[in-house]
């Protein structure tokens, strides 16, 4: 098989959560353990940082990967899902894994598939671990896919765990209370390994305290250790990229030399103002990694945060994909994610707001729609996956929350309509399903926009 045939085989043969939903979710780690055993336990052949959370885990993973890379370490990065190319899930120093490796890996494990019957996600996790082991990375940043305790990535023994945020998402798998969801995320905490929590609330704090005590893991709550503020980023019409200015201060900080200070002012090229919640967790992770003996100089941290996008290839986080017309994409798709988008909109200057949105049907769509701004023109659509909520159903549901607009069967038609209504100074925002955001670039190209 060539590369395209190999990817088609993976999509066609294996249960995919993104496509199939609950039927692809596995309730234990036995398949992942079996795959890793057959591959020679690659997960034990590299150091790692494990990251879970409802929102912010992707951005935090990319920031940490950029920092470790800029500090001089050969850095693996595993994230999911991808937007444009399957290989985005598996990177080393920002470069996606080779097509040749994907082909070779699938050929290697093909005899195991009828026996183990793994899911698509279980295969991609094993593939990432095998690649990082083969390429002898110094450190790998591993993002969970769903939850933590039963997530396929949870077979590693990391240097440190980072939990970013707990909110309502995937309740059918993780529980219908925030403490239950926190308990699933806290499942990545390992015996004697430190854990950093970027954000907690009254209901979730005791969960982290209890699990870390049981695991004899040092626990660090960022809210109690850092003050992080930002200057809202303004669109720079002379540049495609703007920078978010952040002031971060660690309380009761140890004495540091000038080249080691983490407290200070940073520029971040992930411009959503909500990134302030993630930056504190990232900086505390760096602080704790130093204590573990990793050499991460202050200037490297500053350089990395200023250039996360080119260093890692991250996309879809308040991401300007077109200047004229002005189009921003954001993969926020649950209640907290939409609230963060709404807050960012309040800091953004525009004349009229056009929102292209779509969701998958196994989410709490009503709760997300309730958070979207009413003063906008909506273009309801759907991604080309079975899990996508029908655009007409979405439009009908949204009308009940005072959101007005029309339904379109695909992204290209929705985008064409939004552009036709666009006037200079307006903003077109694409948000909701990750799989919808992934459609924007191709649609723009077909509509002959750069």
CATH superfamily of the largest domain: Mur-like, catalytic domain
How large is the radius of gyration? 21 Å
Low-confidence stretches: 17-24, 236-241
Shape: globular
Describe the structure.
- The protein has 450 residues and is an alpha/beta fold.
- The protein folds into two domains: 3-312, Mur-like, catalytic domain (UDP-N-acetylmuramoyl-L-alanine:D-glutamate ligase); 319-446, Protein-Tyrosine Phosphatase, Chain A (Alpha-Beta Complex).
- Helix content is 39%, strand content 17%.
- The chain contains 20 helices and 17 strands.
- It has helices at residues 3-13, 17-20, 30-38, 57-70, 99-109, 113-116, 120-134, 171-174, 178-185, 205-214, 222-225, 275-291, 298-306, 308-312, 335-346, 365-371, 391-399, 411-421, 434-437, 440-446, and strands spanning 47-52, 75-78, 90-92, 95-96, 139-143, 160-163, 195-197, 219-221, 226-231, 244-250, 264-268, 319-322, 327-330, 353-358, 377-380, 405-407, 427-432.
- The chain has an eight-stranded mixed beta sheet, sandwiched between helices.
- Strand 15 (377-380), helix 17 (391-399) and strand 16 form a beta-alpha-beta unit.
- It is globular and about 55 Å long.
- The protein starts with a helix and ends with a helix.
């Amino acid at each position: 098989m060539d590369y395209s045939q190999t990817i088609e085989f993976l999509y066609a043969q294996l249960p995919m959560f993104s496509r199939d939903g609950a039927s692809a979710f596995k309730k234990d780690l036995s398949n992942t353990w079996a795959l890793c055993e057959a591959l020679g336990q690659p997960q034990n052949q590299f150091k790692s940082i494990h990251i879970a959370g409802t929102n912010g885990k992707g951005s935090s993973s990319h920031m940490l990967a950029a920092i470790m890379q800029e500090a001089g370490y050969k850095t693996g990065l595993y994230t999911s899902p991808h937007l444009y190319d399957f290989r985005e899930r598996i990177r080393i120093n920002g470069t996606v894994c080779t097509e040749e490796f994907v082909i070779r890996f699938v050929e290697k494990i093909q005899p195991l598939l009828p026996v183990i019957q793994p899911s698509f996600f279980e295969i991609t996790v094993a593939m990432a671990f095998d690649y990082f082991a083969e390429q002898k990375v110094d450190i790998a940043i591993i993002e969970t896919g769903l939850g933590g305790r039963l997530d396929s990535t949870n077979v590693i023994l990391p240097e440190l765990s980072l939990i970013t945020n707990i909110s309502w998402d995937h309740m059918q798998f993780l529980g219908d209370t925030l403490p239950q969801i926190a308990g699933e995320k806290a499942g990545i905490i390992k015996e004697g390994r430190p854990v950093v929590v970027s954000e907690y609330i009254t209901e979730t704090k005791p969960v982290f305290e209890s699990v870390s005590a049981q695991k004899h893991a040092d626990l660090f709550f960022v809210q109690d250790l850092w003050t992080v503020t930002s200057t809202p980023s303004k669109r720079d019409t002379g540049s495609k990229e703007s920078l978010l200015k952040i002031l971060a201060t660690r309380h009761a900080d140890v004495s540091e030399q000038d080249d080691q200070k983490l407290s200070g002012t940073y520029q971040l090229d992930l411009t959503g103002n909500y990134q302030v919640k993630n930056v504190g967790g990232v900086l505390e992770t760096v602080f704790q990694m130093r204590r573990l003996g990793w050499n991460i100089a202050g200037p490297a941290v500053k350089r990395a945060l200023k250039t996360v996008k080119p260093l890692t290839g991250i996309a879809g986080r308040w991401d300007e994909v077109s200047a004229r017309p002005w189009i921003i994409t954001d993969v926020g798709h649950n209640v907290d994610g939409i609230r963060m988008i709404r807050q960012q909109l309040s800091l953004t200057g525009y004349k009229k707001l056009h929102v292209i949105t779509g969701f998958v049907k196994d989410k709490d769509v009503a709760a997300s729609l309730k958070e979207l701004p009413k003063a906008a023109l909506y273009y309801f659509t759907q991604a080309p996956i079975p899990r996508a909520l029908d655009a007409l159903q979405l439009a009908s549901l949204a009308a009940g929350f005072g959101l007005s607009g029309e339904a379109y069967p695909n992204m290209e038609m929705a985008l064409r309509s939004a552009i036709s209504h666009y006037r200079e100074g307006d903003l077109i925002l694409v948000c909701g399903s990750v799989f919808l955001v992934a459609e924007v670039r191709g649609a723009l190209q077909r509509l002959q926009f750069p």
